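Example record for the data management plan.
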Amino acid sequence: MTDTSGNIPVEEELAVDIVDLTKTFGGLKAVDDVTIKVPRQRVHGILGPNGAGKTTVLNMISGFIRADSGRIDVFGEDVTRMAPFHIARRGVARTYQNIRLFPGLTVIETVIAGAYMQRRSTIAGAIFLSPTERKERKAVRARAAELLDMVGCTAPHSALAETLSYGDQRRVEIARALATDPRILLLDEPTAGMNDVESEQVGRLLVQLKDLGLTLILIEHNMRLVEEFCESVSVMNSGALLAEGPPTWCLEQDDVKEAYFGKRSDAARIATLRRVRRDPGGS
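Corresponding structural encoding:
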């Protein structure tokens, strides 16, 4: 049995359920009545040309921007009006299109900073370095080292994170997000600035994380990576949902090709946004 709104099996638990989401900035509709359903433990891509509204969707899922209308559920709980830290505590972590690292922190310290929600020590214990605090710090540092190894960061742990190559800074940022112990990881262009080999490594990491139980939603312009590692995609253009389904099927649709490369008149392209194309075979 399939859900006619998105060709997702009804019995399959949804990690993220976005319904009729709209966001306007001034007179511009950045996101226009978008519905996206992402099952648990899936690698799902959000595609589209620049200005399509992709990052705005991630910002609303993570609580950094409030939707004007519509609803966002995370594992069945409405988070549409929640503050970012409440959403983070429900297992949503993210990385950013523009890398955001803490100036002056080393590689290992940057990842440790991401584990703040997992800390259980008291203020007094932290001040006086109680045995419990020492034990917890040791465990957190060991976990941070494991995550750096998992994401393929070979830079010295004592190096300042801001001095690393662009690719390694990306890896550190992903490791920091994983340190929050998320159930859902939102990634905004995780392979930006990476070569083909590095991008392939990120793709394999996504599959590894999925196999560990995570749900991954990523914005990505590397179509080879999308086709190889994403199980499903939602394609956006001018704030609206243009197509949804397996990546190969979506990328073959004329409307999607025209959104990326241009072909018909603008009026004809805008008209296509009023009818969402979905893979008839399901995703």
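Summary line stored alongside the record: The chain has two domains: 1-91+182-283, 102-181.
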